[in-house]
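Observation: inputs received (chain + PMT).
Thought: call the complex predictor directly.
Action: predict_structure
Action Input:
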Amino acid sequence: MASLSNRKLLLIVTGGIAAYKTPELVRRLRDHGTEVRVVMTKGAKAFITPLTLQAVSGHPVHDDLLDPAAEAAMGHIELARWADLIVVVPASASAIARLAHGFADDLFSTLCLATDAPIAVVPAMNRLMWSAPATQRNVELLRADGKLIWGPAEGSQACGEVGAGRMLEPSQILEQIQTFFGNTTSLHSEPAATSGALHGCQLLITAGPTREAIDPVRYLSNHSSGKMGFALAAAAHAAGAQVTLVAGPCSLATPNGVTRVDVTSATDMQRAVAEHIGHADIFIGCAAVADFRPVQVAGQKMKKSQGEDHMVIELVKNPDILAWVAAQTPAPFSVGFAAETHDVANYAKEKLQRKGIQLIIANDVSDPAIGFNSDDNTVTAYWADGEQSFATASKERLAEQLIDLISQRYEQSI
Ligand code: PMT
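Observation:
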């Protein structure tokens, strides 16, 4: 984890019940040596007092755009320039809408327009407000503008409902901040090789399974170990690429020089990919992303009822991350995997077309000696007008061969 010592963080607290958790976040940040300044909106002050945040941050709280005293000390333009990172936490639906549409009529919105510091948004709201098309449109606008979106989490909410919209816990926000600074640090401290087929390329890769929560103790998942994706990340780094690895839950060590972002569910994975896709030249979707997730996540452990021998769990489709990446403008050179148990070549070619990608690697997962959770693999790669088969080899060796092929196909595409 990156050191947070001497980082300058501007927290913007907007109106929401989760605002009561921000003093804890400020306290933890200061424990790590981070300098924190706080801005509050009018709505935030309905939930928590400026005095509390002043006490924990050790600085006066800023809350007014037109306050002569504040402008005489540290004015809003100076605040906007001062921060290494701005975190809007909690970000209400209204704050997200105002940010997405470029308002400049209060301190919060003006600061966010007047800065070139990265801005992270930590949503917190009722599940229906979060899933409302207007909010989702606004979140997409923010992502497209390069804002980082951290969360929301799923679970029981202050209003008594259960679903997506909960603010991440202070410890999780702290981790996101550390990962953010870690990413910038590792890009500078662990340079990729200065030569190699992918020298100068930025490569984003997903690996491992996703977990889709049913209740606090159960989830839907699959047998992916992450070995193939981690081996590809290592081989791409060795070939000179700057690699970001978005990893589902797996216990493998991070390959040297690779920046890792850990996620749990498919929606977490999509968010992380959206946050890091901006500069990617090449995207590889090696993760075994769950195609569906439960519609409702129970807030408490689901209990067996006497006399009931069946349980029905309604599922909803997850976003297709690979197809989403390939549909961006401009899109990176996009590579997918196809895990199939039969009719492998046909299904793989169909996915190549349907997902609009440049290369697909077909994996016959009916044989337990290759594919999921094995040390070896055997694959065939397909592209629009060609194919290449690879004999059984360790995933590390195969990854080197696949990275060779990917770099050749990428070169020809530009
Ligand atoms: O992790 P290991 O144990 O080493 O195993 C490696 C592997 C078998 C998981 C890997 O080689 C592999 O085949 N990964 C893709 C598994 C998969 O989910 O395949 P799929 O046919 O369901 O998906 C096709 C492609 O779309 C994949 O690139 C997948 O990452 C992507 N996808 C799928 C669904 C979804 N919602 N979003 C996606 O991006």
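Thought: report the result.
Final Answer: The chain has two domains: 8-185, 196-294+312-413. Residues 206, 208, 224-229, 266, 285-289, 291, 318, 320-322, 336-339, 351, 363, 365, 371-373 surround PMT (CB under 6 Å).
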